[in-house]
Design a protein that fits this description.
Shape: elongated
Largest sheet: none
Structural class: mainly alpha
Number of domains: 1
Low-confidence stretches: none
Mean pLDDT: 86
């Protein structure tokens, strides 16, 4: 049986991977709507959530969960594991200021408006 701290760290890594997947879905999930129209409702909800977090200056609940798991696993702060060096800078950019968060929120909104604009023109062309 694995020691408890290894389990907590493993779950923290899993949360980090899920968090990264959520970010990729928010940024590029609109393209899935070209194939599966039902994804639209999940994607728009995820984008609205992400933009609200950025403009509100809030931290994602997954961040709190990961930090709690890491602390419960004996890590004083987020430190080197197998996947952290690759994903952490992408999920948690260093020195993130409120202005940078607003800029990220704007980028997410603009990118998705562009994707849905393409989708709108695509649908109009095939009809």
């Amino acid at each position: 049986m694995l020691p408890e701290n290894v389990l907590f760290r493993g779950f923290a890594d899993l949360v980090l991977v899920i968090h990264f997947g959520f970010i990729v879905f928010v940024l590029l999930g609109g393209f899935l709507v070209f194939r599966w129209r039902w994804v639209f409702w999940f994607h728009v909800s995820a984008v609205l959530w992400a933009v609200l977090l950025e403009f509100g200056g809030w931290m994602c609940p997954l961040t709190y969960l990961e930090n709690w798991l890491r602390l419960s696993g004996g890590e004083a702060n987020v430190s080197g594991g197998v996947i952290e060096p690759y994903l952490l800078p992408l999920v948690y950019p260093g020195n993130l200021t409120p202005l940078m968060q607003a800029q990220l929120g704007s980028i997410v909104a603009a990118l998705n408006l562009g994707i849905y604009g393409l989708l709108f023109f695509y649908i109009r062309r095939i009809r």
